[in-house]
Amino acid sequence: MTKLHDNPRTDQSTPGDPDAVAPPEVINVTSRRVKCDGGGALGHPVVFYDMGEENFVECLYCDRRFVLAGGAGGGH
Ligand SMILES: [Zn+2]
User: Fold this and answer.
1) Sheet holding 65-68, edge to edge
2) What's the gap in Å between 25 CA and the centre of ligand 1?
């Protein structure tokens, strides 16, 4: 995948060194409803997210970004 250096959504609530924070992991999914548990060692309580009208959602625990794979087979 291509790394995007220009992040349109800047989190201004937590000013800090961007270098000090690991870049969020991007996970491609095929459903707008996703589950995240942190992935083992960095685990957190299992949470479910629904993208709603968006094509992505970020986990509030581990900052992973779940991106809806293009198309999704035409949906309904
Ligand atoms: Zn998570």
Assistant:
1) 26-29, 65-68, 56-58
2) 10
CATH number attached to the domain at 22-71:
2.60.260.40
Quote the ligand 1 centre to 46 CA distance (angstroms). 8
Distance 63 CA to ligand 1 centre (A): 6
Domain boundaries defined on the chain:
22-71
Alpha carbon 51 to chain centroid, angstroms:
10
43 alpha carbon – ligand 1 mean position (Å): 7
pLDDT digits (tens, 9 = 90+) for 14-70: 556 656 666 778 999 999 999 999 987 768 999 999 999 999 999 999 999 999 997
